[in-house]
């Protein structure tokens, strides 16, 4: 089970999503009581998206429904001044140590705006998830793997709970990877990963992953260097084949600052309901922070590919990192350009209606 703290409650809703265009006493980033032009713009964009979403199911035409859903997703994306897929994707020359954990690149709103966005976006993620699941039942190989990585207390668990708040658990598989078991150590390091991959039509979320099998020996020297370095090519081959087989891959590294991590660690010690989240090994990893950052930097440089890019997401503000992941997930699903499967050729609707009369 994930150990990350979850300090943001699900936003209250009025109707289905809440009134996206209204706000009372909103606290803006500048601390002033009145709304800024940015706040109003975001509210207007969100309301337009909600209005569009409300029209989707009113059409009997499948192509028209899908077109309206795509348009609503595009409207939601307009909340961002620069799409996260562009702003946060790792590129060579980028340094993880230069990413400021408390920054919110591409998003000019505040926590309240982000929570509204996540609520609306989650409803559309659920729509696309059902669409992909239906296609999987009918033989499509389309599926999605989300890899979540980050230092302890970076918010991985909260991402899963909030982004998938309206999803159907029947099509979502979550797995947290811990220290390999004796059985897992008897196999290739990718063996346990392959067992948890998403089935056709499913979304799999990995809380930590096969990348631990490179970073940990890099930091602690548990394997000879030639062994763990060879894993870079093995991982790239594995992910390339996975993508070619119809599986989209999102790899997300949550960048949390040491100061923010400290706050969450202390919070775990102050709250008896969070004692279970704290382990002394968390401090050992913290003491090796620079070594971890060096190891992760090499991971990004070696394994961020066109088929499976890395996204470095600032995570001190949980609402921001959750909004980013929601945007990346929704647009990835939308860009699959799926349609609802038709009736099987042997099914005659008129004959079925006659028999049911």
TrEMBL record:
List UniProt keywords, sorted A-Z. Answer: Kinase, Transferase
Question: Under which name does UniProt file this protein?
Answer: Polyphosphate kinase 2 family protein
Q: What Pfam family is a match, any one?
A: PPK2
* Chain spans, region Disordered: 1-41
Q: Where is the Polyphosphate kinase-2-related domain?
A: 123-338
One BP term from GO: polyphosphate metabolic process
**Gene Ontology MF term list:** kinase activity; phosphotransferase activity, phosphate group as acceptor
Determine if Transferase is one of this entry's keywords: yes
Q: Where is the composition biased (Low complexity)?
A: 21-30
Transmembrane residue ranges = none
UniProt lists compositionally biased (Basic and acidic residues) regions at 1-15, 32-41
- What InterPro entries has UniProt attached to this entry? PPK2-rel_1, PPK2-related
């Amino acid at each position: 089970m994930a150990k990350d703290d979850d300090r943001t409650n699900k936003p209250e809703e009025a109707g289905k999503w809440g009134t996206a265009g209204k706000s009372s006493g909103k606290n803006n980033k500048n601390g002033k009581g009145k709304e800024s032009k940015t706040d109003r713009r975001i509210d207007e964009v969100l309301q337009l998206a909600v209005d569009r979403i409300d029209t989707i199911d009113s059409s009997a035409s499948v192509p028209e429904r899908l077109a309206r859903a795509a348009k609503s997703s595009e409207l939601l994306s307009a909340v961002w001044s620069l799409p996260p897929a562009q702003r946060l994707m790792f590129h060579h020359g980028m340094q993880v140590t230069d990413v400021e954990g408390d920054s919110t690149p591409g998003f000019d709103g505040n926590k309240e705006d982000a929570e509204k966005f996540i609520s609306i976006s989650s409803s559309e993620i659920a729509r696309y998830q059902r669409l992909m699941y239906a296609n999987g039942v009918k033989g499509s190989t389309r599926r999605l793997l989300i890899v979540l990585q980050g230092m302890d207390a970076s918010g991985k668990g909260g991402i899963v709970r909030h982004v998938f708040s309206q999803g159907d658990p029947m099509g979502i598989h979550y797995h947290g990877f811990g220290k390999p078991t004796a059985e897992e150590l008897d196999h290739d390091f990718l063996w346990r990963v392959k067992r948890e991959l998403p089935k056709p039509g499913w979304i799999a979320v990995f809380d930590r992953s096969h990348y631990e099998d490179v970073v940990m020996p890099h930091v602690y020297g548990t394997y000879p260097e030639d062994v763990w370095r060879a894993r870079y090519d093995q991982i790239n081959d594995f992910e390339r084949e996975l993508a070619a087989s119809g599986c989209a891959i999102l790899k997300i590294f949550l960048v949390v600052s040491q100061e923010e991590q400290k706050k969450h660690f202390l919070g775990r010690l102050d709250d008896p309901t969070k004692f279970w989240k704290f382990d002394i090994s968390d401090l050992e990893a913290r003491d090796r922070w620079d070594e971890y950052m060096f190891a992760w930097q090499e991971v990004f440089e070696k394994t961020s590919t066109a088929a499976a890019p890395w996204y470095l997401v600032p995570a001190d503000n949980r609402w921001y990192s959750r909004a980013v992941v929601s945007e990346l997930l929704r647009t990835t699903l939308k860009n699959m350009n799926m349609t609802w499967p038709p009736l099987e050729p042997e099914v005659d609707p008129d004959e079925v209606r006659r028999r049911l009369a």
